[in-house]
Amino acid sequence: MERRHFLQAGFATAALATLPRRFAADSRAADPLAELFNVRASDDGPLRLNSNENPLGIASSARRAVIEKLVDANRYPGAEKRALVRRIAAMHGVRPENIVMGNGSTEVLQMMVQALAAPGTRLVIPDPTFEQVEGYAKPFNLDLVKVPLTSAYVHDLARMEAAAREGRGAVLVYVCSPNNPTASITPTAAVDAWIQRAPDNVWFLVDEAYIHFVDASGYESALKWIGKKPNVVVARTFSKIYGMAGMRLGYGVAHPDTIRKLDAFAADSNTNILALAAADATLDDQPYLRQARQANDEARRILCDALEEMGITYIPSQANFVMYQVGDTKAFQKRMRDRDIWVGRPFPPMLEYNRTSIGTPEQMGRFVEVLKDFRTRSWV
Ligand code: PMP
Q1: Mind listing the pLDDT tens digit for each residue in 194-234?
Q2: Which residues have CB under 8 Å from 322's CB, separation 6+?
């Protein structure tokens, strides 16, 4: 038996012996390995609708790839990382020099902040948005400008541009589209027009973590700018539609000179070999990706229809979460916890709203029942 297969079989037997009952493969199954590789995410425990994760669980193809790759986990991930970079580059029609990998896309956000951090650097962000860019900027005391979203919950690009124009040195502009927590997109044409006319000291960090869930016509990725504008960085993640939040893998796409600037702030060997194997397998797994997208569409509809029916104000969603009006979000969060459901944290200044992640259609059906009960008690 080849060493790899021998180790696989050994691992599988040991794993089967220690698996909790609900995961254990049927000993009568023709291929216990296949059973092991195909177990789905556990649905026990709280209903976790708080972190915009993929409720389907990691793709079974990725699970298999990880188990197969364990045999090489004593090795640094050089060749595997280069191979995935080549793959991602080909997928986006760019060169490997245009890609920097991160331990999650959050590391790319961090690299970007650190690459530009200097006395006088201005940071312009929408408000509310994903908090981590502001968080990474904190130790550097940047000149922070938070620009409220418009009444349509899109980035107020006119005000953001005015703020960028007043910057004295480098200006980092964070564009999060779809925006976390509002799940709203900012019109592509307006973003494009600004990128087109922006001076070189203005840097755009375009976060497309949720791009795969968008169904609005006319929405386009900012990747088209990579060959033209060194001041544009696009951040992508394997945490959302690819179902790998716990494995930590993301990447940035930019001009090679910009990538070198970012890479200077990346930890060495920042991607682990199992995450690389999982990503490689998931990229090939079109049925899984289609299913993830369809499940999200269906479950999002279940939630939005129910909100509509109950007359609860919500923001139309282009992502895998929905923000809607609940009154006191802290109280709502606690009451949901009492029902074993985890919903999103408060996002000031929108403290009347809750961000709830989309689960499977079945989970959203259960969630809606609880929400309806809350409504009859006037808790929402
Ligand atoms: N960007 C946005 C907008 C996010 O919501 C998140 C995670 N919730 C991230 C980036 C970071 O994702 P990760 O580090 O898991 O790739």
Answers
A1: 999 999 999 999 999 999 999 999 999 999 999 999 999 99
A2: 183, 300, 303, 304, 307, 314, 315, 355, 356, 358
